[in-house]
Amino acid sequence: MIIAKTVSPVLKIGLRFLGIWPDVSYSAVHLYSFILSMLIVQYFQYVYIMEHLKISELSNLIDGLAVTFDYSLTLFKIFGLWMHRNVFHKILADMDNDWLVSANIAEHSYMMTIKANISHFISNVIFTFNTIVGVFYFLGDYAIRSIIQSADYNNTLRQLPIRVQFPFDTQQSPLFEILVATLFIHVMLHVSIISILNGLILTLVAHISGQIDIMCHEFKNISETVLYRESTSITLETQIKRHKRIISFSENIEKLFSFIALMQVIWNTLVICCIGFIIIISIHNDTGVFVLVKSVLAYVVIMADSFVMCFAGEHLSLKSKLIANAIYETSWYNMPVRQSKVIIFIIMRSQRRLVITAGKMMDMSFETFTSIMKASASYVSVLNAMY
């Protein structure tokens, strides 16, 4: 399929695993199995939180809340993607059609290929980075606990990779080792899903960015045909159709990620606050260096998660402004009156920015990302002053 040029193999495998990719056999079974495993882990995570809902265990409580909230966010994202899977399938069909249209012109195909290569590279980088951080977060937790146990010879309690509370004894071998391996695999799957969703939105924005670049390129070269009324009319008609496809594609991206973006803004803010609390406590803890490194790694991943969504929205908004600029820079004043009037309408429509919103309430942009950063920094500074 031509779609393979845009969507990287890593994303395609992950979306097939989730059952979101079209024409996947037993897609519902794939998705429901993963969601069921997430819900089971979530249940025992919240049981742990309820069991440790005490001031004396505030550090463990907040540490558990950070991972638990992150799991909940991933569940919301999967739910939002599954509910709009028909929109996603429409997006894939539009991408396939864009490649078919661009294949007839070498310059267009070249520009689309560049965007596809960039999206492949970014998807692989995100997946690799999140996987490495996930492994270090897991190993760092065990390093911290081994140091604590070496300092306290009376403490022989073995801890699981994440904060969960099972209704049975987990300390006996080989049950403990099986649970550790199972939870580690589950955590890595969770990290992979985050990488897939982040890579997906950047891939879609890169694709529409390529279409906008093609449209701008065509309008910059339109001056070569302004003396020929018929060819100019054909060129304008083609660009109007392309513009309509760009607008439709952008609206579908908005439908697909609006709910996901809203949940991300809310839950990531909660997770950042929890991690900030852990960072402040770790400064005054015996294992402060190890806890601090672990917390900083988690903080970087969460902020990167928020940045990806905000960057995608900001990039899409900026690229949409280029259309009006490119049209205005054409030799529209040399065109016949009929064509110049059409140009005016295209410019007017281009004034409406293409955006990704969080639940139709706020635009995902660098301004939103800065607001999240300011809120987390203010929270940490207040905690540091009160500690």
Automatic annotation (TrEMBL):
Keywords: Cell membrane, Membrane, Olfaction, Receptor, Sensory transduction, Transducer, Transmembrane, Transmembrane helix
Segments crossing the lipid bilayer: 31-49, 121-140, 178-205, 256-283, 289-312
A Pfam match: 7tm_6
Entry-linked InterPro entries: 7tm6_olfct_rcpt
Membrane topology category: Multi-pass membrane protein
Molecular function, one GO term: odorant binding
Cellular compartment(s): Cell membrane
Superkingdom assignment: Eukaryota
Biological process annotations from GO: signal transduction
GO cellular component: plasma membrane
Primary residence: membrane
Assigned protein family: Belongs to the insect chemoreceptor superfamily. Heteromeric odorant receptor channel (TC 1.A.69) family.
UniProt name for this protein: Odorant receptor
Organism from which the protein derives: Cardiocondyla obscurior
